[in-house]
């Protein structure tokens, strides 16, 4: 379904709810997996995804269509993930190592986590990256977004994103070679 069709339904007061339902149907799964790769835990990802769509609903009148609908939603999702992780560290007085161990445990024992041994090792390596590097890596590697798209979503220059991705790849290679 075309974003323009969804936006037109949302902008029309009589079809606003219908348009929003189309938006959720079009993007909910992608947003969930984007969030899930960052927070690891299914319950947290589920809650965050719901919060993201509430935020989208509350801010629909601010969407100017200067960027695509997907880009706008992903920007909200990205910011929510980073805020959630920062808040989690602060509110629970969690050190980076403790958070890494917790997330690593969820990768190993999570009811909704599957994958072969290599995939699980990659997930554990990603957990050790700084949040923003992990986000860039996930968007580039898993979501297959172009650096230009990631730049629009994150508000970061393409050059900085390329450097961040390069550093993330090198760290992952190092972590995987140590195992």
Automatic annotation (TrEMBL):
Keywords: Sigma factor, Transcription, Transcription regulation. One of its GO terms (molecular function) is DNA binding. InterPro entries: RNA_pol_sigma-70-like, RNA_pol_sigma-70_dom, RNA_pol_sigma70_r2, RNA_pol_sigma70_r4_t2, RNA_pol_sigma_r2, RNA_pol_sigma_r3/r4-like, WH-like_DNA-bd_sf. Residues 23-90 form the RNA polymerase sigma-70 region domain. GO terms for biological process: DNA-templated transcription initiation. Coiled coil: none annotated. Pfam families: Sigma70_r2 (PF04542), Sigma70_r4_2 (PF08281). Residues 120-172 form the RNA polymerase sigma factor 70 region 4 type domain. Belongs to the sigma-70 factor family. ECF subfamily. This is RNA polymerase sigma-70 factor (ECF subfamily).
């Amino acid at each position: 379904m075309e974003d323009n069709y969804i936006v037109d339904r949302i902008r029309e007061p009589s079809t606003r709810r219908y348009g929003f339902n189309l938006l959720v149907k079009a993007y909910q799964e992608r947003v969930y997996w984007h969030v899930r790769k960052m927070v690891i835990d299914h319950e947290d990802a589920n809650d965050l995804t719901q919060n993201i769509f509430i935020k989208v609903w509350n801010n629909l009148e601010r969407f100017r269509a200067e960027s695509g609908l997907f880009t706008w939603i992903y920007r909200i999702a990205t910011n929510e993930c980073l805020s959630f992780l920062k808040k989690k560290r602060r509110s629970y007085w969690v050190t980076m190592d403790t958070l890494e161990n917790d997330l690593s445990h969820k990768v190993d024992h999570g009811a909704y986590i599957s994958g072969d041994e290599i995939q699980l090792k990659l997930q554990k390596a990603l957990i050790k990256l700084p949040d923003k590097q992990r986000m860039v890596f996930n968007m580039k590697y898993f979501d297959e977004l172009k650096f230009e798209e990631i730049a629009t979503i994150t508000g970061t220059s393409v050059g900085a994103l390329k450097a961040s991705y390069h550093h993330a790849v090198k760290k992952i290679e190092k972590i995987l070679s140590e195992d």
